[in-house]
From TrEMBL:
Broad class of enzyme this protein falls into: transferase
SUPFAM superfamilies per record: UDP-Glycosyltransferase/glycogen phosphorylase
Taxonomic lineage from the root: Eukaryota, Viridiplantae, Streptophyta, Embryophyta, Tracheophyta
Position of the signal peptide: none
Domain of life: Eukaryota
Record's protein name: Glycosyltransferase
Amino acid sequence: MEAHELHVLMVSLPYQGHINPMLRLANLLITSGIHVTMATTEVARHRLSSRNITSTTGNPNPPENPNQELLEFEFFADGLNADEDRDKNLGVLLEEYLPTKGAGNLSDLISDFGKKGRGFSCMIVNCFVPWAVDVAAAHGIPCAMLWVQACALYAIYYRYHKGMGEFPSLDDASNSVELPGLPLLKVQDLPTFLLPSGPPHFKNVVAACIHSLDKIRWVLGSSFHKLEEDVVKSMSHLKPIHPIGPLVPPILLGKLDRISGAGDFWDSEDSCIEWLSTQRPSSVLYISLGSISVLSESETKAVAAALETTKAAFLWVVKKREDGWGRRSGELPEGFLERTKDRGRVVRWCPQDRVLMSGAVGCFLTHCGWNSTLETVAAGVPVIAFPDWTDQPTNAKLLVDVFGMGVRMRRGMDGRLSEEEVERCIFEVTEGPMAMAMKKKAVEWKEAAMKASACGGSSDLVTANFIGEISAINKI
Ligand code: UDP
């Protein structure tokens, strides 16, 4: 079967950090002429349908870019009533409703496509919807999983849930674990989903994902070979993971974005790009904690105070409560905006890819979400790593100790972030004795990311092989 005859169904939870890498993979497939349907739950509909996307279930804005016709969105009900609070009910949603009712609704969606003569050649499921693997099997559709976190996390979870690694008691923070292809990891470097303090539902979903791997033909990773070479190799005799990324916005890799903005939940304040163009090269500190995490009241005060003391130029994303997932950001100190208006901007949401590649940003204070991590790698921008939860502590460890492109910002013994700690980190990354070395490493990773994605690069070859295999299977 030729690529343009293939139709891939992608399935993801409705989170910005999950949908972004799925759509960047969609962009790679669309570039080869493959038709992609992105299915997620109804809660994302109102966020996405207010934007410029094409959808068979209501197309409010016809696409300006004809390539977007190769992408369509579908929404299925997750099983909870529309007015129920999904944050409060996350455990039952993930463990009970989605695997039963959500799976049934996804199955109906596939059947409806079938009735219209539009069968799927392959399903690509996000690693947080393991139940979708069974839906694929029930319909006889070959299934791939997109692992949207670091390959390091894949290896950690795999070894933990298969009972393979020598994991110590995770109750004791002073313990550490040595796993093939990874640096020595202290308990605090492990994903919070493994820790006893983490809510059980996330741990269970990841366990279900690992146990579903036997039914999966391909595991694709949002990473690139050189970045995680040792850990990728360490999985090759188990269930190999094939890095197909970095799945970052294509403009960071000098490529065409055929579906630009299609999965964005929020409008970005693009005026900050104009402002960045007036700033000196590498002079601005960019601060963002992704789509879910926020700084607490006291952390916001510490960062704001450090920005005032150091007089650093900054671009700071402070989300409004209604933009996130119910977590409240700390309030900026009284008069802060006025006092810093000559050298700083605060926005609700920005085009992070364009910010990072603006040339004006010299450092990224990040929560180390995997998308932000890959984006700063692809842009060659050093970081101040301030992880919050899930895979972020492990990503912070990678950024600082393995990729060598940043410093870790830590809370004190009292559990609070101090102004002095923020100042120390700003100094270390911008002027300290290691600042040049960090920048050099960041630029080397940027070049490696570009090389992996270029024609004939490691990720380009994985993409070509993957498409070749789907074509071959659908010929039979
Ligand atoms: N992002 C953005 N504008 C912002 C903040 C974040 O476009 O102002 C994007 C960022 O580029 C990344 C995603 O939101 O692709 C956040 O994903 P990540 O995995 O870093 O964190 P999460 O939101 O999942 O915690």
